[in-house]
C-alpha cells in the first residue's frame, strides 16, 4: 500500500502596511484582489508620522507606504510590489498584465515610471504641505502642475486605448489610482480631458477599482478638506 505525504502549497501570510487615503496602497490592494490574494492590512498613523519611526524604517528606510511583507521578504514601493505579486502569484493569463514582449513592456514601464516620477509627486506636493506644514490653500501653481499631468495622460490615451497599450495593464492600475486621487483634489474637466474622463469611467466599471480607489479618493479628499479648514482656522 502506498502512503502519500500531504504537501500543502507553501504560502506565507502577506502583510501590507498601508493607509486608506494612499493611492499607491490602493494599487497594491487592487492587484491582490485581481490575483485572489488575501492581505493582512496594517494601517499606519500617517499624521503621527508612524512611517518615519525607527521601527517602521527597519521595514522601509524610505519611510514611505505601502510596504509588503511576504514571510521574511520585505518590499517597499508600490510599483515593485505589484510586479512582485504578479510574478510570484499570477497565473499564465494574468502575466499579460505585464507583457513580456519587449516594446509592450517598455511602454508599460514608461507609464509606470511616469506615475512614480511625475504624476504621484504632484499628489504629494499637494497633500504633504497641507497635512504636515499648515498649508492654507492649493495654489494655482499646484493646480497647473496637476493639469500638466492630465495633459500627459490625455496624450498617452490619444496613442492607445489604455494608458500604455490597447489593453489593460498594471500601468492602468498605478496611473489610474493616482489620477483618481488628483481628480479628488482638482476635478478633471470632462470636455477638456475627454479621453481621460472616458478611461477613468472604464476603470471605475471594475468593482475592485471602485471599492478601493474611488472610496479611498473620497477619504483622501475629506482628510485634505478637514486639514485645510483647520490650517485656515489657526
Ligand atoms: N513611489 C512610491 C511612493 C510612496 C509614497 O510616497 N507614499 C506616501 C503615502 S501615499 C508616503 O509614504 N509619503 C511619505 C513621504 O513621502 O515622506 C510608491 O509607489 O510606493
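Q: What amino acid sequence fits the structure above?
A:
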Amino acid at each position: 500500500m502506498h502512503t502519500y505525504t500531504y504537501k500543502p502549497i507553501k504560502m506565507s501570510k502577506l502583510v501590507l502596511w498601508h493607509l486608506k487615503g494612499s493611492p499607491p496602497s490602493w494599487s497594491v490592494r487592487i492587484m491582490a484582489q485581481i490575483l485572489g490574494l488575501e492581505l493582512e492590512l496594517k494601517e499606519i498613523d500617517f499624521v503621527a508620522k508612524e512611517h518615519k519611526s525607527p521601527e517602521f524604517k527597519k521595514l522601509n528606510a524610505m519611510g514611505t507606504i505601502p510596504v509588503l511583507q511576504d514571510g521574511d521578504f520585505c518590499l517597499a514601493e508600490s510599483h515593485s510590489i505589484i510586479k512582485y505579486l504578479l510574478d510570484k502569484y499570477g497565473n499564465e493569463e494574468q502575466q499579460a498584465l505585464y507583457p513580456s514582449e519587449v516594446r509592450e513592456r517598455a511602454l508599460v514601464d514608461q507609464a509606470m515610471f511616469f506615475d512614480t516620477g511625475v504624476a504621484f509627486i504632484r499628489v504629494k506636493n499637494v497633500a504633504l504641505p497641507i497635512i504636515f506644514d499648515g498649508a492654507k490653500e492649493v495654489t494655482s501653481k499646484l493646480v497647473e502642475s496637476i493639469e500638466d499631468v492630465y495633459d500627459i495622460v490625455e496624450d498617452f490615451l490619444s496613442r492607445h486605448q489604455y494608458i500604455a497599450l490597447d489593453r489593460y495593464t498594471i500601468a492602468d492600475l498605478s496611473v489610474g489610482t493616482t489620477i483618481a486621487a488628483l481628480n479628488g483634489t482638482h476635478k478633471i474637466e470632462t470636455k477638456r480631458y475627454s479621453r481621460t474622463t472616458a478611461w477613468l469611467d472604464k476603470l471605475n466599471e471594475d468593482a475592485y477599482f471602485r471599492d478601493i480607489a474611488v472610496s479611498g479618493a473620497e477619504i483622501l479628499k475629506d482628510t485634505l478638506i478637514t486639514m485645510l479648514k483647520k490650517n485656515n482656522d489657526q
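Q: And what stands out in the fold?
A: The radius of gyration is 19 Å.
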